[in-house]
Amino acid sequence: MAETMVVLPGDPIDSNVLPTAQKRKIGLGIKQEVNTNDFTSTIAGKVEVDHKKKSAVVSTPKARYVAKTGDSVIAQVRGGSFETFHLNINAYSPPAILSHFAFEGASKKTRPQLKNGDLVYARVAFAQKNMEIELTCVNPSTGKADGLGQLNDGMVFDVSLQLADRLLKKQLASLMEELGNKIPGGFELVVGKNGKVWVDCADAGIKGIIAVGRVLQEADDGTFQEKEQKKFINRTIKELGLS
Amino acid sequence: MSSPKSKIQLHPLISSNGSALYTPPSASSTLLAGINYPLEVSYRSNEIPEDTYIEVSLRPNNAVGMVKERHIESLVKKVLQSVILGQETPRRMLQCTIQITDAEIDESLPGGVKGGGQGESYLETLASAINVAVLGCLDAGVQMRGIAGSVVVSISRDGKLKTWPGLKQRKEARSLHVFVYGREGQNLLFESEGDFEVEEWDAAESAARTVVVGKVQDGEDVVMEEDQETLFASIRQAVEERVERDGRQKG
Questions:
Q1: Structural domains of chain B, ranges and CATH numbers in brackets
Q2: A5-24: per-residue pLDDT in tens?
Q3: How wide is the angle at C-alpha B15 spanned by C-alphas B80 and B76, nearest 5°?
Q4: Is the sign of the CA dihedral A29, A33, A39, A40 positive or negative?
Q5: Which residues make beta-bridge pairs with B176?
Q6: pTM of the entire structure?
Q7: CA-CA distance, A158 to A160, in Å (whole number)?
Q8: Of A59, A87, A106, which one is at a domain's C-terminal end?
Q9: Most exposed residue of A83, A156, A191, B39, measured as fewest CB within 10 angstroms of its CB?
Q10: Is residue A161 located within the same domain as residue A229?
Q11: CATH number assigned to the domain comprising residue A46
């Protein structure tokens, strides 16, 4: 879209801006006045019109994670029952369930051994309002783990959903590469869409993990230019005595 | 009337749905609001079949909330009820937690007592609390009919009006008033305290309207000028800044 239109609740939205097709979808945050062709917004944010999809919504940045089918999340085991583990995705969503059989190669005889507090990288298999979230650690079509499963050692950092998204889209690849070169032995990173990042450094140990955590938190503040990035990484590495 | 602007910061907290920091032009206090929405109603009996249950809690900066805070909470709740489209999320709850993070120090008292005690007028806190609650709701993406804004006006002993009076001016004032306006300048809430004449009240009302909504012409039409530093203009600017910042983060 050429120009960005920012609206507040109650602002009129010009109906010329909106798609005109019969099957248009006028979505969240835009309300049609009764018996007229006038539209008003009900939430604050940017009006996003997609003429291809014939849709218009007012978008607001997400702050709270709501589980969607297909998302990869980092969850913690909080308990279990006969055939399932109960996992915590975050403090405000209901506990998710993970079947003992939803692991690669799991059968009645070879069950995964997970204790309370263990971390799991899992995919959301089923998520609907007012129902329990189901997770899986296996690709249903191939039966392979595809990188999902238990996360051993390491540490989890809380980041904003926006940062988690950026990491997943590899928008911070240069920053992470830079950091990986500086930390002896590099580091491992697992990003959950629920705003959790798991970090492990096999060689540098806890100091390396903390360095990565600090850089992630700094990147979360948003404004982080290329030059500052390098400076910040160098400073962090020095402070922790890693180089 | 050239007064300093309100300071607004959206989304200072990362894990609540929406949050806002608000400092009124008098700079006499800073309030932080955290909004969580929609949530399950904690007590089943509070559930409203066709509306959203609103819960407001206000914490003073240096004490526990008492009668004064409960009264402000009930008034903030009333204002929120009138601006929020509650029917969009029936049987759910909107939780609004407001923390006063900073209060002006009364230099005239020995030792410099912080403002906002139980003995003081609740009106200043009320006006800021309403503003910060509305800003928090905007940030949280709560569906609303429109925005709302409020202002405190004091009338001194010699009949002078002052919008957003400081602590000293509030103490010396003959009467204090709070006005809350909706998007089109409709009246949402009036609260007054002290001795005043009807004419004075009228003058205070029009001064308040100028500060919140803007200049009123021909009775009804509200003229929105670009350079006019109304509260609504500040709110709009804050939202625009937030959108811009997020755009950069995504970029």
A1: 7-250 (3.30.230.70)
A2: 889 999 998 888 888 888 88
A3: 15
A4: negative
A5: B154, B193
A6: 0.78
A7: 7
A8: A59
A9: A83
A10: yes
A11: 2.40.50.100
